[in-house]
């Protein structure tokens, strides 16, 4: 059985992207994981598979998507610097939580 839900993991990536201090970012991640999985009882994933691609490629594909099917950038996608921080945060969270990276 495979269940896919990226709510908590995606939230960790986006929310921790605004925390610059490494120790505070780790504390925030620990807090959210404890709150979501232990206090609220949301099932914790047995495995998170993080599909990785270089930021430049992701941005290129996003731009092609816009050109090909008319999808507009959302409020976050319009801010390239923010998207770079989110990308770096994703790399940090994936490493910190030991996600499988492909």
Describe the fold and architecture.
It is globular and about 40 Å long. Helix 1 crosses helix 4. It has 102 residues and is mainly alpha-helical. It has a two-stranded parallel ribbon. The chain contains four helices and two strands, in the order ααβααβ.
Helix-strand makeup class: mainly alpha
Overall mean pLDDT stands at 87
Number of strand segments:
2
Q: Give unreliable regions as ranges.
A: none
Distance between the termini: 20 Å
Biggest beta sheet attributes = 2 strands, parallel
Radius of gyration: 15 Å
Broad shape: globular
Strand order of the largest sheet: 1-2
SSE arrangement, N to C: HHEHHE
Strand content: under 5%
Number of helices: 4
Share of helix among residues?
55-70%
Please describe the structure with a list of short key phrases separated by commas or semicolons.
4 helices; 102 residues
Topology (SSEs and partners):
Blueprint: H1 7-16, H2 22-39, E1 49-50, H3 55-69, H4 80-96, E2 100-101
Q: What would a concise description of this structure say?
A:
By secondary structure, the protein is mainly alpha-helical. It is built from 4 helices and 2 strands; from the N terminus they run ααβααβ. Helix content is 59%, strand content 4%.
């Amino acid at each position: 059985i495979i269940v896919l839900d990226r709510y908590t993991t995606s939230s960790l990536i986006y929310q921790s992207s605004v925390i610059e201090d490494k120790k505070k970012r780790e504390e925030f991640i620990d807090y959210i994981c404890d709150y979501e999985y232990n206090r609220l009882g949301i099932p914790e994933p047995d495995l998170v598979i993080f599909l990785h691609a270089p930021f430049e490629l992701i941005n290129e594909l996003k731009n092609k998507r816009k050109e090909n099917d008319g999808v507009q950038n959302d409020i976050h996608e319009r801010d390239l610097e923010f998207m770079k921080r989110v990308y770096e945060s994703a790399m940090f969270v994936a490493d910190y939580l030991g996600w499988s990276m492909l």
